[in-house]
Automatic annotation (TrEMBL):
GO molecular function annotations of the record: L-malate dehydrogenase (NAD+) activity
Organism: Nepenthes gracilis
Domain Lactate/malate dehydrogenase C-terminal stretches: 188-357
EC number: 1.1.1.37
Gene Ontology cellular-component annotations: cytoplasm
Keyword Kinase found: no
Upper taxonomic lineage: Eukaryota, Viridiplantae, Streptophyta, Embryophyta, Tracheophyta
Main location: cytoplasm
Keywords, alphabetical: Cytoplasm, NAD, Oxidoreductase, Tricarboxylic acid cycle
Membership in a protein family: Belongs to the LDH/MDH superfamily. MDH type 2 family.
Residues annotated for NAD(+) binding in this entry: G43, A44, A45, G46, Q47, I48, G49, D74, N137, V161, A162, N163
Record: active site: H219 (proton acceptor)
The protein's name in its UniProt record: Malate dehydrogenase
Length: 363
């Protein structure tokens, strides 16, 4: 065979090999491509929503390889602002964002959603009684629960952010009975992250080296930020936070009140409520729930109480949880001292009172 024929044959073999590899790679990438996840954000034109939706679109919540379609819901007076948010999402050209639904229709917003982040709610205004605020939110969450019940995807995961978050989540659970109770949660990860941040600053260590604080109870000023089981990674291994801080008066006093009242402090400083940190914490909550918590680490989530730690059942209460395969599990057998018991009981009592108030609004 002449040199020319040999070269021609070699060229054909090379092209065939390259094509085979290309199509094999294409087949693998196609098979590995993830299905699009539909994420609902209510109150999407508000401050938290505006901070949250670009985080979701960028992959902060579900990972850098998870395509999403955003469903954004807000009230009719906010329709123009909501459309403005949609325009900005389009203009940002997020590669993972495969579509945007922006609507004031709760049914349209809920169709096919896999994850629902309930940011919208009725805020307490000057001169309003607590029951008035509760009544407004009961009405909102009853309506949204009904829409999710009928139109969301099976096994939809729900995170309630709007205050009173624990009780709003409970109302949503009551009126969406086909959604498993384990799929309805509320946000206490913001409080959890605030606690991590305070310990990090006190010890002058990286916040990523602090773990296993616990937020017990209500997302309110009665919550109990607990460091009795928390540790810090040091060059000589993990050390208990209490040992390193070596100041029980601070840990049982200023630390707790700082975390409890951090939201009010931010309002005083910004003249606006927490938005960026709330949005970031919502991403943390969903990411760990869906993708799992690191081995040996727990986080705080408001979940439906099963009576663990002698907490009243039938309320949404913040517990330490680990997450795996899209499911959360309450961390068991943590030692509870008398001081902690009193704090946990007090915040639980407030949640029972809120539950009774909410149910009175229903009747």
């Amino acid at each position: 065979m002449c040199v020319r024929s040999l070269l021609h044959s070699h060229f054909i073999v090379c092209i065939a090999t390259l094509l085979t590899r290309h199509f094999a790679s294409y087949q693998i990438s196609t098979e590995m491509a993830k299905e699009v996840v539909r994420v609902l954000v209510t109150g999407a034109a508000g401050q938290i929503g505006y901070a949250l939706v670009p985080m979701i679109a960028r992959g902060v919540m579900l990972g850098p390889d998870q395509p999403v379609i955003l469903h954004m819901l807000d009230i009719p007076p906010a329709a123009e602002a909501l459309f403005g948010v949609k325009m900005e999402l389009v203009d940002a050209a997020f590669p993972l964002l495969k579509g945007v639904v922006a609507t004031t229709d709760v049914v349209e917003a809920c169709i096919g959603v896999n994850i629902a982040i309930m940011v919208g709610g009725f805020p307490r205004k000057e001169g309003m009684e607590r029951k008035d605020v509760m009544s407004k939110n009961v009405s909102i969450y009853k309506s949204q629960a009904s829409a999710l019940e009928k139109h969301a995807a099976p096994n939809c995961k729900v995170l309630v952010v709007a205050n009173p978050a624990n009780t709003n989540a409970l109302i949503l659970k009551e009126f969406a009975p086909s959604i498993p109770e384990k799929n309805i949660t509320c946000l206490t990860r913001l409080d959890h992250n605030r606690a991590l941040g305070q310990i990090s600053e006190r010890l002058n260590v990286q916040v990523s080296d602090v773990k296993n604080v616990v937020i017990w109870g209500n997302h309110s000023s009665t919550q109990y930020p607990d460091v009795n089981h928390a540790t810090v990674k040091t060059p000589s291994g993990e050390k208990p936070v209490r040992e390193l801080v070596a100041d029980d008066a601070w840990l049982n006093g200023e630390f707790i009140t700082t975390v409890q009242q951090r939201g009010a402090a931010i309002i005083k400083a910004r003249k606006l409520s927490s938005a960026l940190s709330a949005a970031s914490s919502a991403c943390d909550h969903i990411r760990d729930w869906v993708l799992g918590t690191p081995e040996g680490t727990w986080v705080s989530m408001g979940v439906y109480s099963d009576g663990s730690y002698d907490v009243p059942s039938g309320i949404i209460y913040s517990f330490p949880v680990t997450c795996k395969n899209g499911e959360w599990t309450i961390v068991q057998a943590l030692k509870i001292d008398e001081y902690s018991r009193q704090k946990m009981d007090a915040t639980g009592a407030e949640l029972v009172e809120e539950k009774n108030l909410a149910y009175s609004c229903l009747s």
